[in-house]
Amino acid sequence: MAFDENTTVLIVDDAHSMSQGIRAILAMGGVTQSETASHAGEAQNRLRGRRYDVVLCDYNLGLGMNGQELLEATRRSGALPLSTLWVMITGERNYGQVASAAELVPDDYILKPFTTQQLLDRLEAAARRKAFLSPAHRLLDKGKTEQAIQTLGGLIAEADSRQRRLDAQRLCGELLAREGLHEAALRLYREVLSKDELPWAKMGVARILSEQGDGGGANALLDQVIAEAPRYTEAYDLLAQNLTDDGKYSDAAGALEKAVAISPRNFNRLHHYGTSLLRSGDATRAVEPLQRAVDIGRGNSFFGPEAMVDLLQARCESGQTQQLDRLQHDIAARQGELPGGPLTMAVCRALTALAQQRPQQAETHLAEAAEWMNAPETDFASALRFLSAAVKLPDEHGAERAPDWARSIALRFADSRHELGSLLEVATPRPACGDAARAAYAELQDKSRAALDQANQGRLETAAAMLHGDAMRTLNCRLGLYGCAMLLRIAENRQEAGQDYAGEMQSLRELLHWLPHDNERVRGFVKRRQALIRHED
User: Fold this and answer.
1) DSSP letter assigned to residue 515
2) pTM of structure
3) What is the 3-state secondary structure of 399-422?
4) Burial, 428: exposed, middle or buried (Cβ in 10 Å; 0-12, 13-18, 19+)?
């Protein structure tokens, strides 16, 4: 990466004088397009709205997320492209140990205090290291994941240092796993582990084993990771997820409690810890971490509302009804920021009505919420919360509709054991809802296998039609992503052959209309579709 007047930089620091000083240093180095953010929420909003070449982020951002937690959140949400250079700025001398125990690491870090030349030199060095992977990053930016994987294979073979080889292997493993090419990803991770006992490679294997249903094998590896790198908080997160899938909600909360002790200001982890306690039936204990998450969220406009909803649910289920009206008011004031929007607000009213012994009003609110179930903005957490209220309806107040609601939710969101496990746990008071969720999950698995079988037999058009039809009926994101990938492959092949591909373009348009555009893969699909449109013109 050449740093010049066209380079865009985001500086994230809660100290105004520090961020302005960095802007001045960059300007002296010829970089004039820099912007600032004073906290994690503002940084996330900027990253969602614009692409930056470089992010310079202070590790300690005051109240709320620290820089490492911000890096993890933006990378996982798809708001941070892989090609963006992330450099952490910190005054903590042990930061190298902190970063080495993280799954997602910055491209480099620099210790305060630093001189102008030290910062510029560090940026140049980090850019040179990242440039090795730039051929793959460019392909990923265009949505060409298959070609990026092939390119990474070549980079692994030609790497002239151990670190470059590991960087390419790490990214390649992530892409293979993301694309569902589990056997290839396992071979890669095990090749790495045959030479280096690296926690991230063990985590890669553990994730795939977990996805394949081998929770025991995954947990054994996670125990090794935790023993070797006790600060590797993502290992606790995955262990907790696996325990949740197995119905061991108290054990999951115990794992997250240890992770929270390591990173006590991580909003997402606090939030998950609280919801794990809530699912384990310990709503009273859930109130404290959820209240902490809300307190952090109040100072970070990006995060607060959803944690408020879970806090409201915990207070409802624990009988702590004295603050419900205030919480409802706060949630309503930020309804536009809530995943689920009107559905979530209606569920909050239903939960409050149930806690205050008003079942008829709860039934009315849930019927209103159900009308929003297929809205694009409804996410899994919102739907799960809806079901948790629905299964508490008394028999004489709408309980007979709950299994149909459970089936619709499962068809849309139950892409893995994790979602199914969550649905089954919530459905415990109503066994018929659990049965409906299991049947829907099996149906989704059958649909995916049937399409894959057709593709493996060379019937790409048939496979694409199946995926498109099933995705449009269920609004299932995973089926939709698979369908987009298949339709784009067909359209690009027909373009090269000079054949018509208007049907594929129309089907793509229909899927992309409701798939989440803040998803990195969806953005790649949009770019590939636009390239096809430009070719037509």
Assistant:
1) S
2) 0.67
3) HHHHHHHHHHHHHHHCCCHHHHHH
4) middle
State the residue for tokens 């865009």: 8
Mean pLDDT of successive 10-residue stretches along the chain, which has 537 residues: 81 90 89 88 85 90 77 80 88 68 76 88 88 91 89 94 91 90 94 92 93 89 92 90 84 94 82 89 93 77 73 91 85 80 90 91 93 86 90 87 94 88 88 96 93 92 95 94 94 92 94 86 90 77
CA distance 63 to 101: 22
**Contact in structure between 327 and 315 (CB atoms under 8 Å):** yes
Provide the token pair at 13: 């620091």
Q: Helix 502-514 vs helix 460-474: angle between axes, to the nearest 10 degrees?
A: 30
Cis check: omega of the bond before 289, within 30 degrees of 0: no
Nearest 10 degrees: CA dihedral of 156, 160, 164, 170? Answer: 20
Residue 203 phi/psi, 5° resolution? -65, -40
Structure tokens at 360: 């008829």
Question: The tokens of 303 are what?
Answer: 């995060």
DSSP characters over 65-133: --HHHHHHHHHHHT-S-TTSEEEEEE--TTHHHHHHT-SS--SEEEESS--HHHHHHHHHHHHHHHHTT
Q: Which uninterrupted H or E stretch holds 317? A: helix 304-318
Cα(32)–Cα(20) distance, integer angstroms: 12
* Integer Cα distance of 474 and 514 in angstroms: 11
Q: For residues 54 and 108, is the Cβ–Cβ distance under 8 A? A: no
Give the type of residue at 392. K
Helix ranges restricted to H, 179-232: 182-193, 199-211, 215-228
E strand or H helix at 6, and its extent? none
Residue at 64: amino acid letter: G
Give φ, ψ of 39 to 5 degrees: -155, 170
Instruction: Report phi then psi at 232, rounded to 5.
Output: -80, 85
Rounded to whole angstroms, the Cα distance separating 13 from 57 reads 6
Note whether 109 and 51 are within 8 A (CB). Answer: no
Strand spans (E) along 112-229: none
Question: Strands of 8-12's sheet, edge to edge?
Answer: 33-37, 8-12, 54-58, 85-90, 108-111
Among candidate residues 374, 366, 347, 344, the one with its CA nearest the CA of residue 476: 374
> To which H or E segment does residue 366 belong?
helix 359-370
Nearest to 250 by CA among 216, 224, 226, 286: 286
Instruction: Say if residue 421 is exposed, middle or buried (CB neighbours under 10 Å; 0-12, 13-18, 19+).
Output: buried
Task: Please count the other Cβ atoms lying within 10 Å of the Cβ belonging to residue 524.
Answer: 22
Q: By CB neighbour count within 10 A (0-12 exposed, 13-18 middle, 19+ buried), where does 295 fall?
A: middle
